[in-house]
Amino acid sequence: MKYLKILLLLLLTVAALACASPQDKAYESQEAVNKERLELIDEYKDCMEKANHDKAKEAECERYLKAADALK
Predict the structure, then answer these.
(1) Could you tell me the sign of the dihedral formed by the alpha carbons of 18, 24, 29, 32, in that order?
(2) CB pairs under 8 A, 24+ apart, for 60-69?
(3) pLDDT (tens digit, 9 = 90+) per residue, 18-58?
(4) Distance between CA atoms of 2 and 8, rounded to whole angstroms?
(5) Considering only CA atoms, which of 46, 51, 47, 44 is closest in space to residue 67?
């Protein structure tokens, strides 16, 4: 009976740890997406600064902004 309680406790502990894993993966995935969005926004800002009010070059920079919006 004592071994059954220990086995049951061990099984419940393993099950609880296994349930937390997908949530952790989801947080890591969301963190990676947010990091990528920030990098794209930084590239957009740099591109706009280099464009120096040239409308054609500013239009090319929009791809970074659109890519960042797609990651929402």
Answers:
(1) negative
(2) 64/40, 65/40, 65/41, 67/40, 68/37, 68/40, 68/41, 68/44
(3) 666 778 888 889 999 999 999 999 999 999 999 999 999 99
(4) 10
(5) 44
Q: Which of 69, 34, 62 minimizes the C-alpha distance to 47?
A: 62
Q: Whole-prediction pTM value?
A: 0.67
Integer Cα distance of 21 and 1 in angstroms: 31
Closest CA to 69 of 40, 31, 26: 40
DSSP output for the chain: -HHHHHHHHHHHHHHHHHHHHHHHHHHHHHHHHHHHHHHHHHHHHHHHHHHTT-HHHHHHHHHHHHHHHHT-
Residue keyed to tokens 């591109």? 47
